[in-house]
Amino acid sequence: MTEDQTTAQSQQDDTSGINPGMLHLWRWSMRITATLLLSLALLLTAGRLSVPLLVWYQSEIEQQLGSILNARVTFGVLAGKWYRFSPIIDIRDLNILSPDGQGDAHRIDHLYIKPDVFASLQNGALIIDQVIVQEPGFRLTEDTNGNWTLAGLVSIGADYTDAILDFLLTTGRLQIVEAELGLYWSDGRELLLDNIYIDLSNQGIRHEALMQARIAGQPSPFQVLATINGDPRGNFDGNVYLNASDLDLVQVAGTTGLVFSTAMLSGDIWMTFNQGTMLDLQAAIDNVNIAATGTGDSVVNTVDLANASLQFTLRHGAAGQWQAWVNDAEFDWQNRPWGTGGPLCGPATR
Fold first, then answer.
1. CA 183, CA 148: separation in Å to the nearest integer?
2. On the CB side of 169, how many CA atoms lie within 13 Å of its CA?
3. CA 294 to CA 219: how far, in whole Å?
4. How far apart are alpha carbons 137 and 197 in whole angstroms?
5. Cα end-to-end distance, the chain, whole Å
6. pLDDT tens digit string along 294-307?
């Protein structure tokens, strides 16, 4: 027997025990796998070649963004590159102005966007893996209807709230570094925040966020940590932690019938949520200073709380039922409509 005949006989012996149908299926699966790998390689190659051409569409992208925002949008630099298996969009000196180009600009010094190619192909929609926003500056104004828009721009009536929240909750990681934000209420109140740092990460229904910011002109920043499972617009569980040192809230403090001249807080606050409802509120207040006077139609003349410290817990049980612990005093009460004659607060239990 020749060498070729020996080799053929050996191959026949090796496959003689394999079901012909399974062998046929295995061969087809290998062909499909090879085709997919080749298609993926071609896709990645095409992406690597096309992403740098993004600069040629800069004017068109500026116009489309401007149309959405009803504003004039300009980029200093728009560049595209490829890092490992994902494209990267790099925008520098992004400016948003009124349509006539006048007035102060809302700006972003550097915007870095990294899509997730494989997740986008799997879901049939654009999925963002990472966004880094460096040194943005925005000013938001409230109209008499309670709607917010960028200062100097005329609202076109579109509500992008859900679209923005969907983006924030599906982006793998969002970092905002050294931001400035001005909030201007329709009643004349103003709040300026600077040195803002936000780190938001999402994995499925789990969302984790860290925020640190400083009210302009104040020496100490405040910090917020939040962990949420579910959609914060609906049914969700989670907890929020706030730490503040000499936080002056007089700029935003406001309630019907009271005008605050002092509202300063130092301490730690924890909140727990269950099924979208606050279940537990705990606070360890190191120092609180509140001074307020009542307006003409208020039943309160003055409120004065100086250099006070306390610890308290507020717990929500069944609907309309609460428990409160303040230092060593415990109170139980049930919400009652005004005018029933029932007590608002029961006696201390200890």
1. 9
2. 17
3. 30
4. 12
5. 103
6. 877 776 678 787 87
pTM of the model: 0.72
Distance CA 84, CA 299 (A): 66
17 three-class SS: coil
Cβ atoms of 257 and 298 closer than 8 Å: yes
Calpha distance 54→81 (Å, rounded): 9
Alpha-carbon gap, residue 169 to 237, rounded angstroms = 15
Tokens found for residue 12:
């026949």
Q: Rounded distance, CA 335 to CA 305, Å?
A: 26
Each residue's pLDDT tens digit, 82-125: 766 677 888 889 888 887 766 677 898 998 888 877 777 677 66
* Nearest alpha carbon to residue 228 among 176, 271, 196: 271
Scan for tokens 């905002």, then name that residue.
Answer: 176
Q: Work out the burial of residue 49: count CB atoms within 10 Å of its CB; fewer than 13 is exposed, 13-18 middle, 19 or more buried.
A: exposed
Q: What is the DSSP letter of 105?
A: P
Nearest to 250 by CA among 282, 225, 217: 217
What does the alpha-carbon distance between residue 13 and residue 31 come to, in Å, rounded to a whole number? 24
Cα separations in angstroms, 172 against 64, 131, 200? 25, 8, 8
Which of 143, 142, 113, 118 lies closest to 130, judged by CA? 113
CB 177 within 8 A of CB 133: yes
Chain Cα centroid distance, residue 214: 18
Cα separation, 245 vs 237, in Å, equals: 27
DSSP structural state of residue 55? G
Reduced to 3 states (helix: H, G, I; strand: E, B; else coil), residue 133 is strand
**Half-sphere CA count of 217, side-chain side, radius 13 A:** 6
Residue with tokens 């799997």: 122
DSSP sequence for 275-304: TTEEEEEEEEEEEEEEEEEE-TT-S--EEE
Take residue 232 and report the two structure tokens written for it. 């914060």
Tell me how far apart the alpha carbons of residues 65 and 48 are, in angstroms, rounded to a whole number.
Answer: 25
